[in-house]
Amino acid sequence: MLKQRVNRGFTLVELLVVIAIIGVLVGLLLPAVQAAREAARRMSCSNNFKQLGLGVHNYHSAFNQLPIQKSGTGLPVGGTTWDIPSGSSNCEELSALVGLLPFVEAQALWEQISNPNGPNKDGSSAVRPAMGPTPDNGTGNSNYGPWNEELQFLRCPSDPGTGLPAAGRTNYAVCLGDSIVSSTDGPTSWTLYKKDSNAGQMARANCRGVFVPRQTAKFRDILDGLANTVMMGEIVTDLGDRDIRTNPRPYGATADFVVNPAQCGDAAYINATRPQFWATTTALINSGSIGRGYRWADGNPVYTGMMTISPPNTAACVMDEGAYDHSANALAATASSDKRYGLMPPGSRHQGGCHVLMGDGAVKFITDSIEAGTQTNPMVALIHTTTAGLSAGRQSPYGLWGKLGTKASKEVIDSEF
């Protein structure tokens, strides 16, 4: 007797159902996978910040001071102003990250910088000064090897920026407080003259953050408490896409801007359908190698500075005036737009906010919605001998965010962040 043959294969309908189910599952899993990857990148970014925080504390233990933002070897022989590129001196343009190198396991790079004749990035040789030339594109400085090193502990894995036209990028910047004035020169003039009373008075009034350009700072200066004061913040590097966070627009006179910093993000200059980007008609400063976070060794705010004025991930701007001449009651023109005073908020590619490093070494995630006061309020601003905004010593007008950026304003942090 013949047995009936049973077909045990799948029908076409069954196969299509299985494929459809697999497609749905993949569609559901992909966002979870992406979220897991971003969580890992965010954790790695936070770990980098913890390493930097430990390095800052070890530096302070060794030298009883913080690494100086905008330090170096002064003007070259015959030099006129610090804002002119030089191949024979760094004009005190170096960021605090340079001095931090031996304390974050980058001793080899520090040896190249601190000794003369550091290697060029193209392998050629050249006569270079100890501590390097100015960290910019002038007089062949773009070929100086150490300034072009891409240091992994300065890079957040969530930021895709890489390569030219940047030199060595950084996603971490020092906190300069809640005022833009004196953020490039500190208590010095444009000739780096350090005994000018006007420049000193300006710095005392305006430089309210942990780091003061071209001036020694110590933990003892942080009277508001290390755990209540932002020491560094995360920044986004420029991708050449007209991002309002990374490609600053020139605003105009500093004295006009400080009375209302909300003017930086004026809707008239922003793309109406893509509010994270400038309108195509808006003039911007980026050209060549100028861009947010483009040079880790450069102490100017565009590259390695951040302020607690506007909340994270908001617009960046630069002002027309930069340094002050100690011998004249006037602003001195700077050589390049990246060496001007600027409103430089922190930011990141993470969703909803960015990391900050507190004075005690703790890493916090600050949301974009942090309470930042009224953005149309003037900032503390002593320009030469004239109070252009709020007078010195005033409480920060930028809410909890502003309080976190000031080190000695006797402000009580009474909110969670």
UniProtKB/TrEMBL annotation:
Alphabetized InterPro entries for the sequence: DUF1559, N_methyl_site, Pilin-like, Pre_pil_HX9DG_C
PROSITE patterns cross-referenced by the UniProt entry: PROKAR_NTER_METHYL
Region described as Disordered: spans on this chain: 114-144
Taxonomic superkingdom: Bacteria
Residue ranges of domain DUF1559 in the record: 34-372
This protein's name: DUF1559 domain-containing protein
